[in-house]
Write a structure and sequence with these properties.
The complex is a heterodimer.
Chain A (H helix, E strand, L loop, with lengths): L2 H47 L5 H14 L5 H5 L14 H8 L4 H11 L5 H10 L1 E5 L5 H11 L3 E5 L24 H12 L4 E5 L5 H8 L4 E4 L4 H14 L3 E7 L2 E7 L15 H4 L12 H4 L3 H20 L6 H9 L13 E6 L6 E5 L18 H5 L5 H5 L13 E2 L1 H5 L7 E5 L3 H6 L6 E2 L6 H10 L11 E5 L5 H12 L5 E4 L2 H8 L8
Parallel strand pairs in A: 1-2, 1-4, 2-3, 4-5, 9-13, 10-11, 10-12, 12-13
Antiparallel strand pairs in A: 5-6, 6-7, 7-8
Chain B lengths: L3 E9 L11 E7 L10 H11 L10 E2 L2 E2 L3 E5 L2 E2 L15 E6 L5
Family (chain B): Belongs to the URM1 family.
Main location (chain B): cytoplasm
Pfam family, one (chain B): Urm1
């Protein structure tokens, strides 16, 4: 063997050994530095809080300090330190202040008013800052909810909505603006929220929620707010929350009323009866599609839906800043020590109901716990991550769809244009079947208002009673109109079937068609 | 006939439209049904369909002999599923609320 080669190899080996040992030493020095920092932080905290900081929070806050503070690399630490060793590292004043306080000075100012309350405190603010919340639906509920969550300093706020801003949204959807009509709601809301609080990381999801994407999206968040407006999305969001283990704050509103439920809280795996109920536990079957009324059809008072959205933000903040529930180990130790957890610790599922014109306006009712045969959160669950993500679950079919009413043959309908050309000589009668409130907003002169009652017999009785329809016929044609052309067909059919065969006609498309075809100035409410 | 029991009935979430657009009703419910069985919430639902509902669209309230899906029944501020559902035997001055779930947002 070549002795030169052997010596070279030995040199090589020794170099490698020294490099490895140096790297180990560096790692040890870094660990020592971190341990010293932690000790220093603990002493700062002890000094700063004089024991006011609950022991439970200390580790968490120390964790936040270490996580957020940019730490100099080991080389930087002792590159100019002749005395050697990390203990001699000199921190700049800035650095010390950053080290000392877990929040930036701007954050103390911004969040101080909520932080000085024991319910939030420093630990709560740190919790909020590390939280990731997803708001599904950026409308009447989502706008105020997102605004308060952003204001409170939630670290990451995801916004999901596939709609664009319309003028008719603006009386209640406070994050949007007249200038942003036509923009994606998500973009509009992010613009508003950034101007409110730029410290928050906003994540845009400018599309509607789909079963295929629900799991992968929800997994990126700690908590979900259901701010949508249809049973289809409510079941989907609840299912995805159960399957990803996220608590869900769900609210809804219509006309002058609202409802709020915190679901899947505590979020436990399917089959664990100690978890909170999901939407399916409370409502195993969806309502018939024809009983589901949207804000566009039923109406909505801005502050009513606003109250519900604000309450969602409140519940979200309460959940995020709550003291951690005892771990299984704690429970075991408690039980060993013969200690029964206080009943107050248990989460009792409730629904909060708000009714603006009732006394009292708020009422909280007790709900059931998880349903033993629930399709998603029980041991008998049939809904799984796999069949949700594969798209094999049809939520639209599950909830049913309403098809546009087609009660009449085309021959029994006239267009708005045709109606506008009829003589106004008293040879025909226009019956407007919208409700009194809409009739009072705008009506055609000479029309008779007989609001559709939802039932042919009762409506016809009323129409005859007020003289809008003659029981035996009076030689005049009847034309029926409503807002969009659905109820008017049912009214025309009731008259045709029972009284005036061939002399009852429906104005196709109602007043919407009237505005589009005949009178552009007709109010578009 | 064993007399009647006073029950407070309330409709919300739009259901009041089926009941003369009136939310709160004080009803005097027969204390027992035809067979002499004490009145239950199930009996109350039938009784409301026969005596109190003004709208002909009864299917908006009851479907297949049961309260339709999407309506929560509350017995003294608790989901009726905590109280035995329709088998719950009514007591004087019980408060029964029928809530239609809302979906708007």
């Amino acid at each position: 063997m070549d002795p030169t080669f052997s010596a070279d190899a030995q040199v090589q080996r020794l170099r490698q050994h020294i490099a490895a040992t140096e790297s180990q030493l560096t790692a040890l020095k870094l660990q020592l530095q971190q341990a010293e920092q932690a000790a220093e932080i603990a002493s700062y905290l002890n000094g700063a809080y004089q024991g006011g900081l609950a022991a439970d929070w200390r580790d968490e806050i120390c964790g936040a300090l270490q996580y957020d503070t940019p730490r100099p690399l080991p080389e930087d630490t002792w590159q100019d330190g002749e005395s050697g060793g990390p203990t001699s590292a000199k921190w700049t004043t800035d650095h010390v202040s950053q080290q000392r306080w877990p929040l930036q000075s701007e954050e103390y100012k911004r969040y101080g008013r909520q932080m000085i309350m024991p319910e939030i405190g420093l630990h709560g603010q740190l919790r909020l800052r590390s939280a990731k919340v997803l708001v599904v639906g950026v409308g009447g509920l989502g706008c105020p909810a997102a605004a308060y969550l952003a204001g409170a300093g939630v670290g990451t706020l995801g916004l999901m909505d596939g709609d664009t801003v319309e003028v008719s949204n603006l009386h209640r959807q406070i994050a949007h603006s007249s200038a942003r009509v036509g923009s994606m709601k998500v973009d509009s809301a992010v613009e508003y929220l950034r101007s409110l609080n730029d410290c928050v990381n906003y994540e845009s999801h400018p599309h509607h929620l789909t079963p295929e994407k629900a799991i992968s999206t929800f997994e990126q968040y700690d908590l979900v707010l259901d701010c949508t407006d249809h049973p289809t999305s409510r079941y989907l969001i609840s299912d995805a929350c159960v399957l990803t283990g996220k608590p869900l704050v769900s609210a809804s509103a219509l006309k002058t009323e609202g409802q709020l439920i915190v679901l899947n809280n505590p979020a436990r795996p399917p089959g664990d009866a100690s978890g909170g109920p999901c939407y399916r536990c409370i409502f195993p079957k969806p309502p018939p599609a024809e009983t589901v009324l949207s804000c566009g059809d039923g109406g909505i008072l801005g502050p009513v839906v606003g109250v519900m959205g604000v309450l969602q933000a409140l519940e979200a903040i309460k959940l995020l800043t709550a003291k951690l529930p005892p771990t299984d180990l704690d429970w075991a130790m408690d039980l060993a020590a013969d200690e029964v957890p206080a009943p107050a610790e248990l989460v009792r599922p409730t629904m909060l109901m708000f009714s603006a014109y009732s006394t009292p306006q708020f009422r909280s009712v007790r709900l059931r716990s998880r349903r033993a045969a629930c399709a998603v959160c029980s041991t008998e669950a049939t809904i799984t991550r796999q069949n949700l993500t594969s798209g094999s679950l049809d939520y639209v079919a599950f909830c049913g769809v309403t098809t546009p009413i087609k009660a009449l043959a085309t021959t029994a309908q006239v267009t708005a244009t045709q109606f506008s050309q009829l003589p106004t000589d008293g040879s025909n009668v226009l019956v407007d079947v919208r409700d009194e409130t809409q009739y009072a907003i705008c009506a055609l002169r000479g029309s008779v208002n007989v609001p559709w009652t939802g039932n042919a017999d009762t409506w016809l009785e009323e129409a005859i009673r007020v003289g809008a329809v003659a029981e035996l016929g009076d030689g005049r044609d009847r034309y029926f109109v409503c807002r969009l052309g659905n109820d008017s067909q049912l009214a025309a059919k009731a008259v045709m079937d029972n009284v005036l065969e061939g002399r009852a006609k429906d104005i196709k498309g109602g007043f919407r068609a009237w505005r589009e075809e005949v009178d552009p100035s007709w109010p578009d409410y | 006939m064993t007399g009647s029991i006073p029950i407070a009935v309330e409709f919300t979430g739009g259901l009041e439209l089926l009941f003369s657009n009136q939310r709160k009703h004080q009803v005097a419910l027969p204390a027992s049904d035809a067979e002499g069985t004490p009145s239950t919430v199930g009996y109350l639902v039938k009784w409301l369909c026969e005596n109190l509902i003004k709208d002909p669209r009864k299917e908006m309230f009851v479907l297949d002999d049961s309260v339709r899906p999407g309506i929560l029944v509350l017995i003294n501020d608790a989901d009726w599923e905590l109280e035995g559902e329709e088998k719950y035997e009514l007591r004087a001055n019980d408060e029964i609320v029928f809530v239609s779930t809302l979906h708007g947002g």
